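Data availability (excerpt). The following record was deposited with the supplementary files.
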Amino acid sequence: MLSIIKKRECILLFTAFFLVFSSHAHESCKIAVIGTGYVGLVTGAGLAELGHNVCCVDIDKKKIDQLQQGIIPIYEIGLDELVHKNVNKGTLRFSTDIEKVIREIDIIFIAVGTPSMPDGRADLTAVKAVIEAIKENSHTSKIVCVKSTVPIGTCRQLAQMIDCDNHNIVIISNPEFLREGFAVQDFFNPSRIVVGTEFTEQAEIMRTIYAPFLDKNIPFLCTDLVSAEAIKYASNAFLAVKVTYINEIAQLCSAVGANINAVATGMGLDDRIGNKFLSPGPGFGGYCFPKDATALVRTAEEAGVALRVVTSCIEANKHHKHYIVQKTAELCGDGLCGKTVAVWGLAFKANTDDVRESAAIDIINEFLKMGATVKAYDPMAQENMKQIIPNILYCDTKEQVLDCSDVLVILTEWQEFKEFDYDRLVDYINRVAVIDTRDVVPAVAAKRNVNSIYKLGC
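Predicted structure:
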C-alpha cells in the first residue's frame, strides 16, 4: 500500500515541478551544499532541479557511497526520484572531499546538523568545522549561505571567525522552512525566501539562485543577519506553541464532551488563526521544534529576556505525553503492569522515518517503567527507533503487533492505519481497547466501541 501511495504522490509532485519550472530558463550557478541530511540533500537536489550545478558534500563516507550508488539514506516523498533525475542529468553529484570542493566552488550552502546540547544550547561543532575548512581552503571570493538553524547572532560570530574582510568571504543567513515528510514539496512551493545580508551584490546573487520562485511571486525578504536567524526560531517556536495549544484544547474537549475536530475547524476558519497545525496528536517532536524552542529560550535567557510562553509550551508538551500514558492505563482498567501494549507508529509524524524527539520515545519508555511489555510497528521508522529503544518487540506488520496485546496506542498517522478495518480488532487483540492520538480510527468504528476506544479530544 505504501508503495502505491508513494508512487501516486510522486507523480503529482513531479507534475507540479514541471508546470512550475519547465518554461523558464535562468542563469545557472555552481553551488556546493555541505551536509546531506534532510535539509542538505533536499536543498541540493532542489537547487539542481532549478538548473544549477550542485555538489553535495558530507564527511560521512558511508552516506556518500550510498548516494553515489543511487541509495537514498533517508525517506522523503519524491526525494528518491528527484535525486536520480538530476544525477542522471549531470547537475547533481556527491563528494567527501570538502577541501577540494571549497577550492573549486564559490557559492557554498552550509546544511549540517546543530543538535541540542544537555543545557539546551545548539551544538555548533559541525558548523564551525565547516567554517574552518572554508577559511583554510578559500583562495577566491566566496558566498557562504548558512541554511543550518543556528542561534540568533551566530552568523556574525562566524564572520568574525573567518575574518571575512581579509578572505573576501560574505556570510549570508538563508534559513530553511521545510517540513519533514513534505520537504521536497515545500522546497518547490516555499511560503517565502528569507535572506539575511547587508551586501547588495550578494543579495542579487541569491535572487539569481532563487529566480524561478521569484517569477512566481514568492515573497523574497532581504533583511539583516540577526533578523533572518530570528525569523527561523520565532516561526518554529510559534508553530510549537500552536501544536501544544490545540493538544491542551483536545484534553479539555475530552473532559467536557466537545469534539476537537469541530473546534479546530471552527478556529481554522478565522483567517487570523488559520487551519494549519491545529490537528491534535501525542505531542510535537522531530528534529526542529523541540531543539529550536529550547535553543530560543536559552538565547533569551542569555539576553536577559524571559520567554514565558515558549517555556510553558515546552513543559506542556512534556505533560501531554504523560497524559496519553495515563489515559492508556485508565482504559486498561487496572493499570499497565503485566499488560502488553501494541504501538502503531514510531516516527514523529507520517511520511518520514525520523524518530528524533518523537513522542513515541517518552511514551514507550513510560509504558516500560509502568511494567508493560511493548510491541511496536512502523512502516518506515523501525530501524531508527531500534537504535534508541532496543528492548521492545518490533513486528513486521500492523496485524502482528496486535496479536495477544491488551491495548493499541496509535502515535503516527500513517495512511495504512487509517485504512485498517477496526471491526476486526477483536480477531487480534485481547480486548478492544484503543488510544487514538491521531484521529485515525473512523468515527463510525469509534461510536460502535465508545467505551473501549479513546479518541483524543472526542
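Summary of structural features: Residues 236 and 288 are 7 Å apart (CA to CA).
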